[in-house]
Amino acid sequence: MPNPILSIIMPVYNVEGFVAASIDSVLNQESCDFELIIINDGSTDGSGAICEEYSRRDSRITYISQENRGLSGARNTGISNAKGEYITFIDSDDTVSPDTYGKNTDIVKANPDIDILEFPIAEYFGSTKENLLTFEEKKFTSSDSVFAAWVKNKGHYHNYACNKIFRRSLFCDILFPEKKTYEDIYTTYRLITKSKVYYTSPYGRYFYYLRSGSITASISLTSLYNLYYSALEIYRSISGISGLELERDIYALEIANFIINIARHEKREKTKRLTSESPLRPLSLFRLLSMPVEARQKIKNLPFALSGIKGHVRFYKLIR
């Protein structure tokens, strides 16, 4: 049998209450040539048995069981076993609409130069924080500088791997970092910098649920550091490109907020080292006030503009 156009990689760890709905949403895709690779990452509940039963019933499913290596390790196992020309990811407690993979693989088949395609995602679906991200149908090519176009399109604020379809060859020297959280931020922008054609699609929808106990729902100090250092790499990349000065300075406000959150939980000595080593460029008050951001964000970052990152952190530690 010829290889499928799309390999869908699903890591599974202790989600017996959600995994069947996730698998069903993939199997119910309309007109899509795909394989589903399920990696049971050392589950201790009934998740593995559910996935094994699905694999016996449907030949499109490849079931792999391994010792626990975390989300990144499971995704990397899926990548190494993928046969499709393109790869996408779905978390085992999320779902996709029936038209998601079929319509978007039709686009990549009609445009074989596409390296990465991004499609709509419903963030925190079903919660009070629910937000729908949609996109205009548009192609960004190397002549536009794909990374610069991605940043101008605010792609670095939604760095998810799950609502994107990637050319498999992009992963030849890029994998997800194991034993780290927020691995999408660390990995996706690297794939963007390698791509020559990036495409945004209005078709389909990924439903990203906010579950109790998830990484997004509860964040540790270690995770805050992972988030900060991953975002810092993107900031440095933006800083190196002429024409992205505004985007760089707006993103600096995000980085400053990460530092504040770390400082609220960290020892004074480590906080001082963090602010001393910070590469954030100082902002003038005029620069801050003229930025196209919400008024509350400008107000929050007044200490940053008036006294730099050290004074900014000192102020918010005092009022925490």
CATH fold-type name of the largest domain: Spore Coat Polysaccharide Biosynthesis Protein SpsA, Chain A
Number of helices: 12
Question: What structural class is derived from the secondary structure elements?
Answer: alpha/beta
Task: Report the end-to-end length measured between terminal Cα atoms.
Answer: 61 Å
Computed Rg? 21 Å
CATH architectural category of the largest domain: Alpha-Beta Complex
Walk me through the structure.
The protein has 320 residues and is α/β, with parallel strands linked by helices. The chain folds into two domains: 6-209, Spore Coat Polysaccharide Biosynthesis Protein SpsA, Chain A, CATH 3.90.550.10; 221-318. Helices cover 43% and strands 17% of the residues. It is built from twelve helices and twelve strands. It has an eight-stranded mixed β-sheet with strand order 3-2-1-4-10-6-11-9, with helices on both faces. A four-stranded mixed β-sheet has the order 5-12-7-8. Strand 2 (34-41), helix 2 (47-57) and strand 3 form a beta-alpha-beta unit. Helix 8 (245-263) runs parallel beside helix 12 (302-318). The model has no long low-confidence stretch (mean pLDDT 93).
